[in-house]
Amino acid sequence: MTVLEGNLVSGAGRAAEFLQLDWVRSQLMELVGIDPFPGTLNLALEDDTSLASWRQWRSMPGQALEPKEAGFCRARCYPVQVAGRIPAAVLLPAVADYPEDRVELVAALPIRRHLALGEAARLRVELCSPLAVRAVLFDLDGTLVDSVSAYIEVARGAAAPFGLKVTGEQVRTALATGGSFWKGIVPEGRTDVDAIAKGLSAHAAREWPRVLREHARLFDGLAQTLDALKTLGIMLGIVSGARPEVLELLRPDGILDRFDAVILGSDVSKAKPDPEGILKCLHQLGVAPTEALYVGDAPIDIQASRAAGVRVASVLTGAGDSAMLSAYGPDRLISSHVRLPAMVASPAAIDH
Q1: Could you give phi then psi for residue 206, rounded to 5 degrees?
Q2: What pTM value is reported for the model?
Q3: Residue from 35, 139, 146, 297 carrying the catalytic annotation
Q4: Options 3.40.50.1000, 3.40.50.720, 3.40.30.10, 3.30.70.660; which CATH number does 135-143+218-344 get?
Q5: Where is the Riboflavin kinase domain positioned along the sequence (predicted)?
Q6: Residue 253 among the catalytic residues
């Protein structure tokens, strides 16, 4: 574990504009899962232990941030956790006179405000090293399957016969929180709210298999990611509240066959954020919670993982955005499943 501790200091004030450049935002999101809040947080290192760790840290390659405009330098970024719970990244510009005792942090959240930090507050930053696990469990929608557009389509189709409208934002919020798609779309004062809600649900249930086939797809590169994890000796599982129809998308090319256990909504009595599904899957695999990682796209995935005692990686391919997910404190924040093989280690590391 590489840990740095330093005190907050003022920066030069030029980072906010830089971090809003399209090429900077897109590279930070792809490399470290951070859609940056404008501005950086600067730390000054004083103690010998942190200074020595930072020198060692700087010698590592990190992730390269390549300039797309003249007048900007290259930089390296390193995924970290701040105060043990906020995903962030250290940004190290490739300039000759960069202070050796200075650490510059970027995050999707305003860290100072989020942690209520005062002037010169002391802060702990931990470098994200590969996680040794025996099993990786996956959510389906928004994680393995690109299905958010399908949910929006089926919700809008169900609402139209009733003269109602559902926004994409309402659907994303429902997926992220485990709430109802229909909450708030029926005008207040209607006496038939329950009947309409039942009608909406019935229509959506009838149309879902067709909409799923027409509007959902697997994310690119999934077979390669799963094979890379299997090569490391890691068992694979699915834990999702999805209906069984979605598994049909995983049957081509033997994707479904790569999983050692599958738990869907019909297999549990309580949905996420309750940990029942995760714990049931781990029991089938014979893996302890402390030796597993759950991968999902929503805050309820983080909450369920915490309740189950497993570590959690949040992906940016579904309902939750970088800031929303960061606020719930995942262990890792990554752009997509493609980043997984590089952030886990073989189960053999657990035994040594």
Answers
A1: -65, -40
A2: 0.93
A3: 139
A4: 3.40.50.1000
A5: 9-126
A6: no
